[in-house]
Structure formats: C-alpha cells, structure tokens
Amino acid sequence: AKGATEKNLTMHILGIAGMVFYFTYSRTLVSRILASEYIPAFKKKLIQNIVTFSLDGLPLRNNREHD
Description:
It contains three helices and no strands. It is mainly alpha-helical.
C-alpha cells in the first residue's frame, strides 16, 4: 500500500502469524467456543476468516470514516 513502511509491513505479518499460532495452539478452546470439530472444512473456514480479517478488518463500518 502507498506509504507503508517496512516496520508497518512487519507488524502486519506478525499479526497474521499471531492469529495462525493462536488457532493452531488453541484448537480445543476454539473448537469449544465455535462448537465445531477441528476437521479440514473447519480449518479451511478459519483460514478464510484470517485472510478476510487481515485484508479487510472488521466489516462493521459500512466503509465509513472514523467519527
């Protein structure tokens, strides 16, 4: 992205890695909270969620600027 520094990119990469590590090492907790077995289809959905969140953030603002 325009204006992104190496430090910004590194922080974003660490954030994505942190989400992946969390979901990898917290399988039991994640499975209980989401009431789903950790099967391939569930892992695929988790991966899709991480990618979407990493690219778009929370879809709560309807493309509005901060108030």
